Prior knowledge:
The complex is a heterodimer.
Chain A lengths: L4 H26 L4 E3 L2 E6 L11 E11 L5 E8 H12 L10 H26 L3 E3 L3 E6 H12 L5 E11 L4 E9 L1 H16 L1
Antiparallel strand pairs in A: 1-7, 2-7, 3-4, 3-5, 3-6, 4-8, 7-8
Chain B lengths: L2 E2 L16 E3 L5 E4 L2 E7 L3 E7 L4 E7 L15 H14 L7 E7 L8 H4 L1 H15 L4 E6 L5 E5 L7 E5 L4 E3 L1
Parallel strand pairs in B: 2-4, 7-8
Antiparallel strand pairs in B: 3-6, 4-9, 5-6, 5-7, 9-10, 10-11
Amino acid sequence: MELSAQQMDQLKELGNIGASHAATSLSQMLMSPIDMTVPEVMLIDISDIATHIRDEIAAIVIFEIQGEISPGGYVGLYMPRESAVRLTNTMLGTTDMDREFNEMDESALLEVGNIMISQFLDATATLLDIIMIPSPPDIAIDMAHAVFETILSQVASDINNVILFRTDLRSTVHEIRGAIILMPNCTTLNEILMLLERLMHG
Amino acid sequence: MRHLNTKSIDLPAPPALPQQCVNVGIGAYHTGTCAMTAIGLGSCIALVLHDTRHAVGACAHIMLPESGGKTDRPGKYADTAIPLLIGELTALGGVKRSFVAKITGGASMFSNFQGKLNIGERNIEAVRAHLEAHGIPVAAEDIGGTVGRTLHYNPANGGNISVKRADGSCREF
């Protein structure tokens, strides 16, 4: 799989629109401003994933992309453990940082993830004029690399490099950081690229 | 909305690995005398093949059970990785009957997506079956469950492996 500079730019723009909507919904939930980075689109060899995603403990809310392009790959909300605790503390009105991650946290994160990722997919799908909806979410609180390689085993069985699309979001008020990560499978990516091409050139 | 520098990404800087320590990435493998590590094993399996007579070994980061005839990444699949590691160690002067296997990983990371993502169990079965077919005994294993693991292996240290789990516990085999 190879992508031209133009295709990379188109994907970045698509992600930018999706992530902006997700960031707005997070901002509303936290009632604080959210900063976001310009999306990164990386074509990574599977053996090099560890240079981008390490084994630190993180909460990852993950969805399968469903709809017109199904199975379409996966999209997820990634949050380092401490940020995840701060996020649920903010939502639940507590301040205790030094505690175990419990069911209430998981449930709150699933909900935040659901709202943000629905916004992300909805905005990108509207632009592409297709239907993309998230599956019911699942959550893992574990080594980030361990979680991602499990998802990779679904999207990269026949290919050796994957598109990693990533936007970082942060709330400086609450010291919360997270990222939206999109891992489309090969056919979905081609479909998206084709639709983008059509969009650009009418 | 303010745009931050895209390089200031969220993940913490990777901890510096000790020199001469190779991280075996997904689908990759390494053979030799230096220390090896496979970080963040989820459903994948790190297979260590250790030569008990010489301080030499090999490690593969296996992602899927069957290659289906693909040969471009032999370390990626259980059925191709095992003969590959045997061949690599034999080429370094090892004798097959002194090889032992140690395996870790094969966890199930998701509870809701089990139907689709229970690849960990299939990986474990495939690795065991292919090891048995090649007559390689499994000397140690820390597999399955629902927790991620990081493997360290040092061929010089009597072939010991240490496995750090996501819950913070660490065990040596």
